[in-house]
From TrEMBL:
<comment type="similarity">
    <text>Belongs to the TACO1 family.</text>
</comment>
<protein>
    <recommendedName>
        <fullName>Probable transcriptional regulatory protein SAMN04488130_11051</fullName>
    </recommendedName>
</protein>
<keyword id="KW-0805">Transcription regulation</keyword>
<dbReference type="Pfam" id="PF20772">
    <property type="entry name" value="TACO1_YebC_N"/>
</dbReference>
<dbReference type="GO" id="GO:0006355">
    <property type="term" value="P:regulation of DNA-templated transcription"/>
</dbReference>
<dbReference type="GO" id="GO:0003677">
    <property type="term" value="F:DNA binding"/>
</dbReference>
<feature type="domain" description="TACO1/YebC-like N-terminal">
    <location>
        <begin position="4"/>
        <end position="73"/>
    </location>
</feature>
<dbReference type="InterPro" id="IPR048300">
    <property type="entry name" value="TACO1_YebC-like_2nd/3rd_dom"/>
</dbReference>
<dbReference type="InterPro" id="IPR017856">
    <property type="entry name" value="Integrase-like_N"/>
</dbReference>
<keyword id="KW-0963">Cytoplasm</keyword>
<dbReference type="InterPro" id="IPR049083">
    <property type="entry name" value="TACO1_YebC_N"/>
</dbReference>
<keyword id="KW-0804">Transcription</keyword>
<dbReference type="GO" id="GO:0005829">
    <property type="term" value="C:cytosol"/>
</dbReference>
<dbReference type="InterPro" id="IPR002876">
    <property type="entry name" value="Transcrip_reg_TACO1-like"/>
</dbReference>
<keyword id="KW-0238">DNA-binding</keyword>
<dbReference type="Pfam" id="PF01709">
    <property type="entry name" value="Transcrip_reg"/>
</dbReference>
<dbReference type="InterPro" id="IPR026564">
    <property type="entry name" value="Transcrip_reg_TACO1-like_dom3"/>
</dbReference>
Length: 237
């Protein structure tokens, strides 16, 4: 198994445990998708993917429709995605993905979390290069052979395909998202969920006490409503 498999195994059950928080994040994903490609999912592959994710999270249909409507309001004109970089204690690189309508507020909050937890905010590009930006898709297994599927999708950018208890996962570089989504749809394969992740190229092992220091910062960041995802180079226990 490759790095994507180990990354997924390490993160499983650790994040997105609160349904209300998950709905908030999916709602923001919908807003960003509509602003990027319009409110019609048939013509907007990113929106189509987020709607699939909303179903996987059992998000009510009216919540989805409300988020799509919100995305067309002028109040969301300044809504944008912002990436923050820095270091937690013990030399652990931290990458923070946010979606915000008030960048000054988000910058101030993220900086305060780093300061309070003995971390350091970095400049743009200071740690992003330590992570591979990937896309992923989950489809039902239905007796399918992951190795055969990988051979079929390798020309479309797939780098790692494996099965777990919830289906088959496909990982590829970030810019292969649209190509793989289109190919899966053309094959008539149901996409249960999809998304983007940043996989650390190298991880660092820490003691339990050191891990607790890093987890304190990660938890503070993840509690912020503007924060969508937090990635790090700490080796998962």
């Amino acid at each position: 198994m490759g790095r994507a498999f180990e990354f997924r195994k390490g993160r499983k059950m650790k994040r997105w445990s609160a349904m209300a928080k998950a709905f908030t994040r999916i709602g923001k994903d919908i807003v960003m998708a509509v602003k990027e490609g319009g409110p019609n999912p048939d013509a907007n592959s990113r929106l189509r993917a987020v709607i699939q994710n909303s179903k996987a999270a059992n998000m009510p249909k009216e919540n989805v429709e409300r988020a799509i409507k919100k995305a067309t309001d002028k109040d969301t004109a300044n809504y944008k995605e912002v990436l923050f970089e820095g270091y937690a204690p013990h030399g652990i690189a931290i990458l923070v993905e946010t979606a915000t309508d008030n960048n000054n507020r988000t910058v101030a909050n993220v900086r305060s979390y780093f300061n309070k937890c003995n971390g350091t905010m970095g400049t743009q590009g200071s740690v992003e290069f330590m992570f591979d930006h990937t896309c992923n898709f989950r489809i039902p297994a239905n007796g399918m052979d992951p190795e055969e599927l990988e051979l079929e999708l390798i020309d479309f950018g797939a780098e790692e395909v494996f099965e777990d208890e919830d289906g088959i996962l496909i990982y590829a570089p970030f810019n292969s998202f649209g190509t793989i989504q289109k190919e899966l749809e053309s094959k008539g394969l149901e996409i249960l969920s999809s998304g983007f992740e940043r996989i650390p190229q190298i991880t660092k092992a820490l003691t339990e006490a050191e891990m607790a220091d890093v987890e304190k910062l990660i938890e503070k960041l993840e509690e912020d409503d503007d924060v969508m995802n937090v990635y790090h180079t700490m080796e998962e226990a």
